[in-house]
Amino acid sequence: MTAVVTHTPLIALHALRKSYQVGTPTEAEVLHGIDLRVEPGEFLALIGPSGSGKSTLLNILGLLERATSGDYLLQGASVQGLTDAELTLRRRRTLGFVFQFHHLLPAFTALENVTLPALMQGGRIDARDDARARELLAAVGLAGALHKRPAELSGGMQQRVAIARALAMDPPLVLADEPTGNLDTASSSEVFALMRRIHAERGTAFIIVTHDPRLAARCDRLVELVDGRIARDEAVGVAVDKAGL
User: Fold this and answer.
1) 12-34 pLDDT per residue, tens
2) For residues 105 and 116, is the Cβ–Cβ distance under 8 A?
3) Where are the alpha helices (DSSP H) in the chain?
4) Residue 174 phi/psi, 5° resolution?
């Protein structure tokens, strides 16, 4: 008899709903029963028109907001009943974030910005944290900019620092909200190619919210939200080299 091989998805959402102003006359539901499964190592684009619920869904996936009902399993364990402190711990250990605006601390160097997650988690920076930050900055092409502050870096370089920071705790998943939305075309291409390379080399899963159809077409899977519901979920056939645009 052949054994059945099973594995745990990275993310499993079951009938997930999100409402605001609950219990008031202005209560509004923005996510209507989302079912979604994301496997370890996927590279997924989340698209949809403004107001479709993308940001709300990303905030719930990032443990920044709670669903109103349904269930969210992260690495096989439900997060719905966790306290705020427990959610913070899970977020720091499991998730990396890249935003449209890099949110680097202006008074910190590139190296200090990348070591910040370790400082927040452990209260101090040790030699291993410093070495990992240097390794990550080298991996994103910034070995020569360790001691430069954000104002001394281009927009694309700042976003590279943000990506290195997102990887500082070696998370299995990076959530990226319009990560190239504030960049010119050339810098956008470079940053996206960098994320694809990290995905290929490290097996890190990425969920990328984007309005750019060119970038969405270069992901492996496309999930489209319309009016708080999944309207499309399909693999993307890519005829070009994903490692460079």
Assistant:
1) 999 999 999 888 888 899 999 99
2) yes
3) 54-61, 84-94, 110-122, 127-139, 155-166, 185-202, 213-216
4) -115, 130
The domain in which residue 106 lies consists of: 40-63+83-235
Burial 179-192 (b: 16+ CB within 10 A, else e): bbebbeeebbbbbb
Q: Which two tokens stand for residue 219?
A: 């992901």
Would 177 be classed as within a structural domain? Answer: yes
Domains contained in the chain, number: 1
Task: Please write the tens of the pLDDT for every residue from 36-66.
Answer: 999 999 999 999 988 899 989 999 999 999 9
pTM score, whole prediction: 0.84
Q: 10 Å Cβ neighbour count for 132?
A: 19
Q: Is residue 1 part of a domain?
A: no
DSSP H or E run through 208: strand 205-209
**Phi/psi at 176 (5° precision):** -120, 120
Structure tokens of 148?
A: 């430069």
